[in-house]
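Progress note, sequence design subtask.
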């Protein structure tokens, strides 16, 4: 459903979103609470946030076959320890996206070493669905992987770059909208 007449609040400078440090449980809880508060503050805003989340999900679904087909095999055979807890830990933006997608937050044990192999790394790779992972997990591709992908499948690589761009824009739209709402609530949270 589209709400064409819904205008973003015009509130001047939008606030930065909070930084989350690995292992800072209090900041993590506060972030979840802030997001939940914004999501329940008005029906029209809530609808808009979920609508933006749906757009992100569509982009993820478009990207997923390309990621599975052209990168999973390379990553599965890689033993560089790319997947460590610190990378899997969600930041504020990730928590916001999870909420907009209607996902339950994944319990992340941040008492484990941030440099240790990620707790969600299984024998066949990541045990989380793509949309449940932190954005840096979905987004991180080492140069070697990109070079091999581009060299072997140049057309698919261009498509992949294009789709990454559309996903990024959809995500940025949600973040921008949320910042606007947050600016309107500052002092009331
Ligand atoms: S992104 Fe690169 S370093 Fe990370 S698992 Fe894949 S191939 Fe290995
Ligand atoms: S891709 Fe999965 S296993 Fe790898 S760091 Fe991210 S959450 Fe952990």
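Output:
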């Amino acid at each position: 459903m589209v709400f064409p007449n819904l205008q973003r609040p015009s509130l001047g400078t939008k606030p930065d979103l909070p930084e989350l440090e690995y292992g800072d449980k209090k900041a993590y809880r506060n972030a979840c609470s802030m997001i939940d508060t914004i999501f329940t503050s008005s029906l029209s805003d809530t609808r808009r946030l979920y609508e933006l989340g749906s757009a992100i999900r569509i982009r993820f679904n478009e990207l997923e076959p390309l990621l599975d087909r052209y990168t999973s095999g390379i990553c599965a055979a890689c033993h560089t320890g790319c997947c460590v807890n610190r990378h899997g830990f969600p930041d504020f933006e990730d928590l916001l996206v999870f909420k907009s997608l209607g996902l339950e937050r994944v319990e992340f044990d941040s008492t484990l070493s941030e440099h240790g192999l990620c707790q969600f790394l299984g024998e066949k790779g990541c045990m989380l669905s793509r949309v449940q992972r932190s954005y840096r997990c979905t987004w991180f591709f080492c140069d070697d992987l990109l070079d091999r992908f581009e060299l072997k499948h140049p057309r698919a690589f261009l498509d992949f770059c294009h789709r990454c761009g559309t996903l990024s824009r959809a995500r940025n739209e949600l973040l921008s909208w949320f910042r606007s709402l947050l600016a309107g609530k500052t002092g009331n949270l």
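Residues 83, 87-88, 118, 120-121, 126, 128, 133, 137 surround iron/sulfur cluster (ligand 2) (CB under 6 Å). Work on this subtask will continue into the next period as scheduled.
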